[in-house]
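chain below, 468 aa
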Amino acid sequence: MANRFEYKNFDDKDNYIQQSGEVMAIRAFSGVPTACIRTYGCQQNVADSEKIKGMLSEMGFSFTENPEEADFILFNTCAVREHAEDRVFGNVGALKNIKRHRPSVIIGLCGCMMEQPHVTDRLYKSFPFVNLVFGTHSLQNFPKLFYNVITNGKRVYETGVDDKTVYEGIPTKRDGTFKGWLPIMYGCDNFCTYCIVPYTRGRERSRKFEDVVNEAREMIQSGYKEITLLGQNVNSYGKNLDEKVTFAQLLSAIDQIDGDYILRFMTSHPKDCSKELIDVIANSKHISTHLHLPFQSGNNRVLKAMNRHYTREKYLDIINYAKEKIPDVSLTSDIIVGFPGETYEEFLDTVSLIEEVEFTSLFTFIYSARPGTPAAEWDDPYTHEEKSKWFSELLAVQEEIAAKRCASMVGQKVKVLVEGKSDKDGVLTSRTSGNIIVDFEGDESLIGQFVYVEITQARNWILLGKLC
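prediction:
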């Protein structure tokens, strides 16, 4: 049989499996082989896992959530925080018993952690039962790498191979039926001093304008109600393309596609967040009124040390413009507490910015040193215990702000997308355009649909409502 993959721009076809997926699977397994994919970290990792599932599906695999049932187990890893790495190593170690009882099972790891030499060295020396390791730049090579594992029986490692190419046409098996991720670019050129992403994901590479718009159109026509555009910094979209196009223009083009859907995006960098982008959101039909704009610190010295390329004043300027043009805008952000050298007084500048902006919610982290980044080598005079106290102080301020914002929505009628069942019987969970969760009583047939709900009660992080 001929290979069923239909890659659009692979120049060297000999690098890819020429047998069909079914033939390849039969050589290694009896019956229909089963794969278990575990994804850690960001939405970009989720999107990568959906591509791996697409390739596995073409190769004849079915899927399970139980590693005990799987012929192939793959962990797609995250390197952004130390806790994520520790969790992966712990879970990989637990697979040793599965390998002992079923030696034929193939165990693999991929993703950002695999682009760090200290990680792959540890895996090779301490986890000999791991068969396959590949990095973020080798996703398109997965069929070839897997084929090599099952045909020669040796461990296969491929990392650090960044050819700076955007590969189109890789099959995708999306996890959801009405919510979907749509990558528009890969990598990052910002090199924030605390961040490992440019080293694990490579430099910025944007997909072609027409490829992104066409995929969005296909998703909308297939019934997707929520599409989230993904990139390490979506505001940088188009910078490396031959055609002159901005992220605002891309967003506007997708918004013009007919259909009943909501369009979201993440993650935005403040230095590239333009007033053109805010205007597009304000005048759109489908774009979410939620703006996630990480500021990380409210102190200018710390921002400079982080290599963020904006000031507190510039950040507030774009925030105030967004509030003016989008009256119901919902603002969220990321914050690092205890960056190396940050003083308590500088930390208080972050707290004062939170009070001034009044964010809907925040993703807050105590600084986690990442080997290979500049900040990991810097002196850090404050203890984790001291930073934890600052962290708690910040959370208390934000909880009060969030409670007040949610309370202000009581009595409003809002359009929501019903996402699934709540933990309580007969209660559904949904999300507003501003990315705020609303729980209400309703029939499961509403899942995946837009409905209108009246807000009846507010809690710190979620709203309660009744179906209109």
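The CA atoms of residues 298 and 350 lie 4 Å apart. The two ends are 55 Å apart (CA to CA).
thats it, cya
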